[in-house]
Amino acid sequence: MKTFDQLAVIGLREWINLPDLGMIGLRAKIDTGASTSTLHASDIQPFERDGAEWVRFTAHLGTLVQRPHRCEAPVVTIKTIKSSNGQAQSRYVIRCLLAMGDRGWPVEFTLACRKHMRYRVLLGSKALVDGQLVVNPALTYVQDKPLLRKPSGAQ
């Protein structure tokens, strides 16, 4: 069996921060079957800033009690995503810093309503590849809770 020392091990669920959006202490579910990561968002409103397309949306912090958190981010693109039930949906894509443990790297997130889902954040395979992570599905919350500030080595 081959091993790869440069890859960090994570479990099926991990604590993350999205410091560019001011979001701290989010529980994320790892979804190796999804290519793109997804962030729960509502009240999504596109707007223009300095000639560039941006999006304003409400994210939701907390697990039992949801606290609305207003965010703004530049739009990377609009992507058509096919959900697990086969329905296609156009979604805004943003890029922001993801902090996990003592590491951080930029990740693209599609914005979608996940209000009926247990986890408001899904981390897809592209985020795992970019973060040089491997998943042990028998584990959860392997990494320490991320630092509140931008971690060292953040891009």
TrEMBL record:
It holds the Pfam family Zn_protease. Residues 9-146 form the Retropepsin-like aspartic endopeptidase domain. It comes from the Bacteria. InterPro entries: Asp_endopeptidase, Peptidase_aspartic_dom_sf. This is Retropepsin-like aspartic endopeptidase domain-containing protein. It comes from Pseudomonas fluvialis.
